[in-house]
Every structure is written in structure tokens, then in C-alpha cells.
Amino acid sequence: MEIKKSAVAGTVESSDIMVTVAPNQEEKIVIELDSSVEKQYGQQIRDLITETLNRLGVTAAKVTAIDKGALDCTIQARTLTAVHRASEVTAYDWKEIDSWNA
């Protein structure tokens, strides 16, 4: 999936995460994370964002995530939404996405 523009999903409220996805001309994924639980879960959050991008076929993106203690399902949902907005996709295959966690 090609990232065409910058897009945001989520909030900076407690138990949420704000994910911003933007194009990256360097043809790689770059993740910048600011998290209130960085020491305990920072690598897990980065891994989940990376895994979600890989499953969507994203190979080049700049991701900025501001985490306030979000659960994995919320991190994944915010990343999915931001990527779909940034790639200007209007049709989703929710059955495929739902099977990721099965």
C-alpha cells in the first residue's frame, strides 16, 4: 500500500494512541514513539506497528506515535486507520484484517 499523504488516527487521551503516518521518500519505515510506558512496552509497540504496516504492504512510511497506555488492539486499529487514510483507500477487506488476530 502506498502512503500518499499524511494522516492521523487516535487521540492523546488516557489509554489511547495518536498515530500519524506520512510518506517517506527513503523507502523504509521509520517509527518515532513517545510513550508513557516506553521502558516497559516501547519495543512491543514498535513491533506491533511494524507488523501491521507489513501486513498492509507498506514499505515506506514515517510513523509518529504518541502513546498514553493503549492496548494492542487499539494500537493496531489506530495504525490501520491512519494507513488507510494516508493511502486514500476507501474499500477495506475487514474479513482479512479480522483474521490477523484469530
Question: Can you describe this structure?
Answer:
The chain has 102 residues and is of the alpha+beta class. 38% of the residues lie in helices and 23% in strands. The protein has helices spanning 38-55, 72-86, 94-99; strands at residues 7-9, 17-22, 29-35, 61-67. α1 (38-55) links the parallel β3 and β4. α1 (38-55) crosses α2 (72-86). The radius of gyration is 13 Å and the shape is globular.
CATH architecture: 2-Layer Sandwich
Report the top-level CATH class.
Alpha Beta
Helix content: 25-40%
Structural class assignment = alpha+beta
Distance between the first and last residues' Cα: 23 Å
Secondary-structure element string: EEEHEHH
Averaging pLDDT over every residue, what do you get? 92
Shape category: globular
Number of domains: 1
Q: Specify the biggest β-sheet.
A: 4 strands, mixed
Compute the CA-based radius of gyration: 13 Å
Strand tally: 4
Low-confidence stretches: none
- Give the number of helices: 3
In spatial order, strands of the major sheet run: 1-2-4-3
- CATH fold naming: Ribosomal Protein S5, domain 2
Strand content: 15-25%
Subunit structure: Oligomer with a subunit composition of (alpha,beta,gamma)6.
Keywords: Cytoplasm, Lyase, Phosphoprotein
GO molecular function: lyase activity
Family: Belongs to the CitD family.
